[in-house]
């Protein structure tokens, strides 16, 4: 058996009996058994042992539990259910907070707001932004990741690089370009880290009325950190449920640095330039317009 | 933990009871083990720690309860039930001298305890080798070797022997006395 290099014949035979082998090894064992009658006899005996164990003891599965055990089981069941509900609430609250923050990020950038929201402002913005939920805050199942789709995330903002945060353990897992209120196009980039969770980054062109001053603000809404800033051309929001203040500022600086370092040649490849990206998918050559159209259609 | 565990709990408890029955061959002792296991689980779960595999977690607790029980019996002496059809002599015997025994419960009872546990967890309860190793607090390689030795011993005991002449031979010791007193903290989670 080829698998003998990593597993002994003994291990493979028992794994075969206990149905714990992957299909390839299972086939190898079956082939081995055809030419090793002694091993086949052992395997049959082990199968028989398992069958007899079940024949002898499975009747206890059908028996009613004694009252004392039943009572303890009910108490344990209640305890587990309550714990499950608690953790479910915690998960739901965390998800809601992240979605709300994502929505807020979308509202920030789509509205060209320069100031961070307080709690009350958040509620007001959520009210205002209800219509934007489907456009900005909720994921679109089946939407292609950036690398596969070869979407040019700089499209709506004109020549921006997609921030590469791999150095910080974050990988880009999704991008969306959507047409917001008044035709404003907003980019949502979703990064993920095995250790540090999810990071959302929104940016959009800034309305001309907003002026050109630089503003940076870091807000905490429950477990969610929201870093917002703007420059002469765009508004940005960066949102995380897990990063602390220092990590947010470090990543914010990295993002700003990446966004402002406009590549001028092949010596500074963008994250999704054809050199690094997957081959372009059919229909993805249209760059900005195709991406926006695709994303808008999905939205 | 979530609601699905709560839904599956009655099945888990029945499975625990089956394992305890196979392990002890005594309904009262088996029920005592399960009861004590559930009591301890109620105590531990107050701590609200994350549990990866709740079924394996319960088996781990049951294993600990059983080990404690064996250790207590060892201190106070083993009570041997006298039954007409099974007079067992409790003294150490060479490992390979097994009596021919066609019935799986009796053959199983003549295996060393640690082999019996592995065979029951894997062969009866369907635990993965890794889960069985976690329940017993031993390396996975040890699980494999105990499984292998135990199954071979069972095969030998259950095979027909030409000179087989009934139930007059001595049983090997149920080597509870050799059991490790090591106690694994119920921390599968």
Walkthrough of the structure:
The complex is a heterodimer of chains A (299) and B (189). Chain A is α+β, with helices and mostly antiparallel strands. Chain A has ten helices and six strands; from the N terminus they run ααααααααββββββαα. In chain A, strands 1-2-3-6-5-4 form a six-stranded antiparallel sheet, with helices on both faces. The longest helix of chain A is centred in the N-terminal third of the chain and has 45 residues, at 67-111. Chain B has helices at 3-24, 27-45, 54-76, 104-109, 113-124, 129-136, 140-158. Chain B contains seven helices and no strands. In chain B, helix 5 crosses helix 7 (140-158). Helices cover 58% and strands 0% of the residues of chain B. At the A-B interface, helix 1, helix 3 and helix 5 of A face helix 1, helix 2, helix 4, helix 5 and helix 7 of B.
Task: Name its key features.
heterodimer; A: 299 residues; alpha+beta; six-stranded antiparallel beta sheet; 10 helices; 46% helix; 16% strand; elongated; disordered C terminus; B: 189 residues; mainly alpha; 7 helices; globular
Briefly summarize what is shown.
The complex is a heterodimer of chains A (299) and B (189). With 299 residues, chain A is α+β, with helices and mostly antiparallel strands.
> How many β strands of chain A by DSSP?
6
Give the termini distance of chain B in whole angstroms.
10 Å
* Beta-strand residue fraction of chain B: under 5%
Structural class of chain B: mainly alpha
Q: H/E series of chain A, N to C? A: HHHHHHHHEEEEEEHH
- Helix and strand run of chain B: HHHHHHH
As residue ranges, the low-confidence spans of chain A are 110-158, 263-299
How would a crystallographer describe the biggest sheet of chain A?
Answer: 6 strands, antiparallel
Number of helical elements of chain B: 7
Shape of chain A: elongated
Residue share in helix of chain A: 40-55%
Overall spatial form of chain B: globular
Oligomer: heterodimer
């Amino acid at each position: 058996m080829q698998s003998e290099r990593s597993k002994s014949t003994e291990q493979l035979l028992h794994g075969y009996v206990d149905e714990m082998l992957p299909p390839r090894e299972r086939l190898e064992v079956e082939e081995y058994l055809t030419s090793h009658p002694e091993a086949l006899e052992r395997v049959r005996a082990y199968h028989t042992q398992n069958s007899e164990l079940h024949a002898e003891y499975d009747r206890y599965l059908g028996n009613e539990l004694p009252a004392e055990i039943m009572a303890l089981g009910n108490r344990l069941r209640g305890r587990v259910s309550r714990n499950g509900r608690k953790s479910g609430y915690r998960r739901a609250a965390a998800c809601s907070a992240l979605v709300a923050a994502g929505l807020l990020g979308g509202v920030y950038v789509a509205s060209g707001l320069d100031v961070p929201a307080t709690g009350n402002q958040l509620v007001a913005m959520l009210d205002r932004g209800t219509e934007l939920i489907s456009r900005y805050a909720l994921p679109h199942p089946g939407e292609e990741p950036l690398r596969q789709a070869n979407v040019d995330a700089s499209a709506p903002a004109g020549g921006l690089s997609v921030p590469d945060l791999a150095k910080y353990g974050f990988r880009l897992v999704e991008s969306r370009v959507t047409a917001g209120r008044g035709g404003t196009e907003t980019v949502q980039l979703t990064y993920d880290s095995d250790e540090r969770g999810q990071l959302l980054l929104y940016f959009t062109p800034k309305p001309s009325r907003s002026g050109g001053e630089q503003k940076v603000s870091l807000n905490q809404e429950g477990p969610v950190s929201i870093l917002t800033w703007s420059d002469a051309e765009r508004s940005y929001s960066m949102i995380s449920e897990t990063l602390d203040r220092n990590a947010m500022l470090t990543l914010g600086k990295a993002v700003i640095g990446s966004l402002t370092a406009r590549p001028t040649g092949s010596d500074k490849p963008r994250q999704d330039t054809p050199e690094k990206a997957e081959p372009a998918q059919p229909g993805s050559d249209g760059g900005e317009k195709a991406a926006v159209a695709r994303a808008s259609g999905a939205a | 933990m979530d609601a699905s565990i709560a839904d599956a709990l009655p099945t888990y408890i029945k499975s625990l009871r089956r394992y305890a029955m196979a392990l002890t061959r005594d309904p009262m002792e088996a029920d005592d083990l399960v009861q004590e296991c559930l009591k301890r689980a109620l105590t531990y779960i107050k701590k609200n720690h994350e549990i990866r595999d709740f079924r394996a977690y319960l088996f781990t607790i049951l294993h600990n309860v059983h080990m404690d029980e064996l250790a207590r019996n060892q201190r106070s002496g083993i009570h041997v039930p006298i039954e007409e059809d099974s007079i067992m002599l409790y003294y150490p015997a060479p490992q390979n001298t097994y009596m021919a025994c066609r019935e799986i419960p009796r053959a199983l009872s003549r295996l060393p305890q640690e082999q019996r546990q592995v065979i029951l967890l894997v062969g009866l309860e369907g635990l993965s080798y890794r889960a069985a190793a976690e329940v017993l607090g031993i390396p996975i390689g040890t699980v494999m070797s105990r499984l292998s030795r135990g199954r071979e011993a069972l095969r030998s005991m259950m095979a027909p022997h030409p000179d087989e002449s009934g139930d007059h031979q001595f049983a090997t010791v149920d080597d509870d006395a050799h059991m490790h007193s090591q106690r694994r903290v119920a921390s599968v989670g």
